[in-house]
Amino acid sequence: DALPIYSDSNIGGFQFNVDGATVNSASGGAAAAAGFMVSAGGSTVLGFSLTGSTIPAGSGLLLELTADVAGDVILYNIIVADTNAEDLGKAYIGKRPESCLAVQRN
Question: Is 85 exposed, middle or buried (0-12, 13-18, 19+ CB in 10 A)?
Fold first, then answer.
């Protein structure tokens, strides 16, 4: 399934867990365009760059997930970070901009 993202800042990496599905793979989207290494399996998805590249600020498709869905799918333990591995504090991941999962840290 497609996972859109919105962020006010460039993204240097991301990680999240999935409940209600077993993740088989993740590919494409802004993560692939930025050359991110993406690892996806079981309940965890992790993406980052080995070269320091970033996903540009703005909105678009983060990546496509392939998963065996067992029920309602929930993303949790979401971390979106800059190139220094600092939490960006705010980003949105979800189906539609108006219903994206808000990730905000104070």
Answer: exposed
Q: What is the model's pTM?
A: 0.83
User: pLDDT tens digits for 45-99?
Assistant: 999 999 999 999 888 889 988 889 888 888 888 888 988 888 887 666 654 444 4
Nearest-angstrom CA–CA distance, 8 and 58: 6
Q: How confident is the model at residue 43 (pLDDT cuts 50, 70, 90)?
A: very high
Whole-number Å distance between alpha carbons of 56 and 45: 19
- Give the separation between CA 59 and CA 66, rounded to whole angstroms: 21
Burial of 88 (0-12, 13-18, 19+ CB in 10 A): buried
